[in-house]
Write a structure and sequence with these properties.
The structure is a single chain. The chain has helices at about 10-20, 65-75, 95-105, 110-120, 130-140, 145-155, and strands at about 5-10, 25-30, 45-50, 85-90, 165-170. By secondary structure, it is α/β, with parallel strands linked by helices.
Length: about 170
């Protein structure tokens, strides 16, 4: 079964070696952006330079619609023959929002709550970035369902860094 992996930056090398994903999404602040790891082809690495903020005002590099559109386009180009790794600094907020977006896009309208519940069941620490979720909801024309679904699962357990999480493309029923 194809899946999306979510991790923090400190686990990227180990996760690449263990799972051998074909695609990589990096969501880091511009000043901490990484080069493409040796295990990934450059055209299969999406690097989104953005800060982990819930509101755009007062931040030089907040999540924006163009970031979400690039994420969705990149996700649609992934054939899912091998896993995709999505990571941010801690594997808690930006990467969880990105994985949620990719999974909602793959699963189609009406799946938002099921995908959110799967995310929570597999990642007690997940606290998807609220601004990214709002932008994804708009980009995917979900009418607030993505925002509501993430709100329904709560903020998650406090964690300085999350563990590596495996998220199936088809949420469990």
């Amino acid at each position: 079964m194809p899946f999306i992996l979510v991790s923090g930056l400190s686990a990227v090398e180990r996760t690449l070696d263990l799972y051998q994903p074909s695609h990589l999404v990096t969501l880091l602040s511009p000043e901490y952006m990484i080069a493409t790891p040796r295990q990934i082809a450059a055209d299969r690495h999406l690097r989104l330079a953005l800060h982990d903020v819930a509101e755009a005002w007062g931040c030089e590099s907040p999540p924006a619609l163009h970031h979400i559109e690039r994420l969705i386009e990149f996700g649609r180009s992934w054939g899912a023959q091998a896993p995709m790794l999505v990571h941010c600094w801690a594997g808690v907020s930006r990467s969880m929002a990105a994985a949620y977006t990719l999974l909602c896009d793959r699963s189609g309208p009406g799946c938002e709550l099921e995908v959110a519940r799967t995310l929570r069941a597999r990642a007690a620490h997940a606290c998807p970035n609220a601004l990214m979720v709002r932008l994804a909801d708009a980009a995917l024309a979900r009418g607030g369902r993505m925002v509501e679904a993430i709100a329904s699962i709560g903020r998650g357990e406090m964690a300085a860094e999350g563990c590596c999480v495996v998220l199936p493309l088809a949420p469990a029923s």
